[in-house]
TrEMBL record:
This is NAD(P)-binding protein. The keyword Oxidoreductase applies. Transmembrane segments: none annotated. Belongs to the NAD(P)-dependent epimerase/dehydratase family. Dihydroflavonol-4-reductase subfamily. InterPro entries: NAD(P)-bd_dom_sf, NAD(P)_dehydrat-like, NmrA-like. It comes from the Eukaryota. The keyword Methyltransferase does not apply.
């Protein structure tokens, strides 16, 4: 199937989200016409103003919005997708309440069914690194690259075999989320095999996203950076993984629409492994007056010891990722530092 050419109309689900907002900006820069789904038109207009500051055409011929307030409504998706050629789907349902795993699965399959009905040609789904591995566990392979063929079977087993006591732990939410995203992605690939829809599927696998926020509200991942800048060391308790600048992540989502080699693939949105002490050193260098936490001991998991095969993503980006220092400084600046 031919890749989507500039000028094609694409739909970005939940366009005011952190990754989605940058995806929309990159899509406009690449020459696509963008239709963003939103829950709030007020926030949508805030995003339009942010895009205008970035120097892109945000007139009605280039950027439109449509309300989609129910991620489980196939009819709303059909209305949003009608007339478009491509879909980028980074959105998630509200992560609370009962039956969260099934909610995540259905919020993936329902838009795929709608896309098939209206004749979408390319569908880009945002996956997650934890569908491939669980950072910090000792069983991650160190003797080879982690590839798009790997899955987080260990976390799935912990989710399925959890005792009632384990389910009461606040940490069990991570296994619920991981199970939902892993099963949703596997069901998406199964849907492609069983139903042969008119579109090609690409799944992005993001690491930890930092980078400037386009809207006033900061995403959770940037709150970790804000904590480090104010002397809180809580983020350092997290096992280090891979970092990606959200601008590169957005660009990869858009490149997946046009790159023939991305069709039918899982592609890593992951630039380089994290060393928490290297991040702290960058912060001390640029913010000597801030109470940056002390270094943490080097260990078997810090710096991040495993490696992913991001060669395809690197190729799509022309061989260059935004570096960690630039990513961190632009993030801090967008937070007001």
């Amino acid at each position: 199937m031919a890749p989507l050419a500039p000028g094609s109309l694409i739909v970005i689900v939940g366009i005011t989200g952190y990754i989605a907002s940058h995806t929309g900006l990159q899509a406009l820069k690449a020459g696509y016409r963008v239709r963003g789904t939103v829950r709030s038109m007020a926030k949508a207009e805030e995003l339009r103003a942010a895009y205008k500051k970035e120097g892109v055409d945000v007139g009605p011929a280039k950027l439109t919005y449509v309300t989609l307030d129910d991620l489980m409504s196939e009819l709303q998706y059909e209305a949003a997708f009608t007339g478009a050629d491509g879909v980028i789907h980074p959105a998630l349902p509200d992560l609370y309440g009962e039956d969260l795993v099934n909610k995540i699965i259905q919020s993936t399959l329902i838009p795929m069914r709608a896309a098939a009905k209206v004749g979408i040609k390319r569908f880009v789904l945002t996956g997650t690194l934890v569908a491939v591995l669980m950072p910090g566990v000792p069983t991650i392979p160190m003797d080879r690259l982690i590839t798009d063929k790997d899955w987080n079977d260990e976390a799935m087993a912990k989710y399925r075999n959890a005792t009632e006591e384990e389910k009461k732990s606040p940490y069990f939410f991570l296994y619920v989320y991981t199970a939902g995203k892993t099963m949703a992605e596997r069901e998406a690939w199964k849907y492609m095999d069983n139903h042969s829809p008119p579109f090609e599927l690409t799944v992005t696998i993001p690491g930890m996203n930092w980078g400037p926020t386009l809207l006033a509200s900061a995403p959770t991942s940037l709150s970790w950076l804000a904590e480090l800048l104010t002397g809180t060391d809580t983020p350092l308790s997290m096992p280090p993984l891979y970092i990606v600048d959200v601008r590169d992540d957005g660009k990869l989502h858009v490149l997946a629409l046009s790159a023939p080699e991305a069709a039918g693939k899982r592609i890593w949105a992951a630039a380089e492994p994290i060393d928490w002490n290297a991040i702290l050193a960058i912060l001390r260098k640029h913010y000597p007056d801030q109470p940056i936490p002390e270094d943490i001991p080097t260990s078997s998991i810090n710096p991040c010891p495993w490696r992913v095969d991001n060669s395809l993503s690197t190729k799509l980006l022309g061989g260059k990722w935004i570096g960690m220092e630039e990513c961190i400084m632009d993030s801090a600046q967008s937070l007001g530092y």
